[in-house]
Specification:
By secondary structure, the chain is mainly alpha-helical. Helices cover about 60% and strands about 0% of the residues. The radius of gyration is 26 Å and the shape is elongated.
């Protein structure tokens, strides 16, 4: 009887520690201050993309995910190959 109670008590304590470990790290993570955020305006993301090389936007006429996947697998590799090997 005593061993059964100890097993139940150990299981309850273990589950409590597991829950504290799982959810406790989320509450300890500090929030990002607005002053430290490098992206401040709507034009900043574009400037960041442009600073890292060519950016190929997805065409606006693609509406379904099947169309987007088809474009990414067929047309996008052609566009990136043209950028990587420009013909002079």
């Amino acid at each position: 009887m005593a061993i059964s109670l100890l097993v139940v008590l150990a299981g309850a304590v273990g589950m409590l520690l597991l829950l504290l470990t799982w959810f406790g790290s989320r509450s300890i993570t500090p929030e990002i201050e607005d002053d430290l955020d490098p992206i401040l305006g709507p034009k900043d993301p574009t400037a960041i993309y442009e600073s890292h090389g060519p950016f190929i936007p997805m065409p606006a006429h693609l509406k379904t995910s099947d169309q987007m996947v088809d474009w990414m697998t067929k047309e996008l590799p052609k566009l990136t190959a043209e950028i990587a090997n420009p013909r002079s």
